[in-house]
Design brief:
By secondary structure, the chain is mainly α. Helix content is 71%, strand content 0%.
């Protein structure tokens, strides 16, 4: 987990500011032990302040995320998401409500648990889809009615996949059938990580709605 945020690049966007923004010097940043002051600078779009906070905490936050998720890739993604949130919401931080480190640990734990729930839902849906798509009639079932039910279920699953928008179907197939993580899908498709997450979430939602009558009748 040695990835570093570039001091002049936001972790959430490649866009640069259209006009110079106030920044603290390297020597001033090194002496700044007041973390609320760092957040004040981040709220002013000071990317070097964000880098300083990242350097100070990213290993600790990664350790917490990894302990929950047990996946280096997922833990790294959570940490980057946390610092994206810090970049967006630093102005809302209230020192009276707690220390900066406690706030960062709370964000990391919350995002890690959310991600764990998402991964569990994805696994359940993928397993159900694969089982329904590949199920074969048991040897003892020879009746035409049972064969028709199973054939209808397989056809329904494949039709539901086919009716998804192409971009959603593509990321779902990469996630489920090739076992790629969100980060790997983003790299392979050239899409932003947030876009990949959104497409997977929307695709799963549509797939569950389409399959609901099939499971209800099964």
């Amino acid at each position: 987990m040695d990835e570093q945020l570039q001091p002049h690049a936001s972790p959430c966007s490649s866009d640069s500011p259209s006009s110079p923004l106030p920044r603290v010097s390297g020597s001033e940043m090194a002496q700044a032990s007041n973390e609320p002051a760092l957040l004040t600078q981040i709220a002013l779009a000071d990317q070097s302040a964000l880098s300083a906070l990242y350097d100070r905490y990213h290993r600790l936050l990664y350790a917490l995320a990894f302990k929950i998720l047990r996946s280096p890739t997922e833990a790294e993604e959570v940490v980057l998401d946390v610092f994206c949130q810090v970049w967006r919401t630093a102005a809302s931080y209230n020192a009276a409500r707690g220390r900066v480190d406690a706030w960062l640990f709370t964000l990391t734990r919350s995002r890690s648990l959310d991600r764990l729930r998402v991964l569990a839902r994805i696994k359940r849906t993928a397993t159900a889809v694969e089982d329904a798509a590949t199920v074969e009639p048991p040897a003892q079932i020879a009746g035409p009615e049972e064969d028709a039910i199973l054939s209808e279920r397989r056809a329904g699953v494949l039709a539901a996949l086919d009716h998804l928008p192409k971009e959603q179907r593509e990321v779902l197939e990469l996630a489920y059938y090739q076992g790629l993580t969100h980060v790997e899908i983003a790299a392979q498709t050239g899409q932003a990580l947030g876009t990949v997450k959104t497409r997977i979430r929307l695709g799963l939602s549509k797939l569950r709605e389409s399959l609901r009558p099939i499971w209800a009748n099964g």
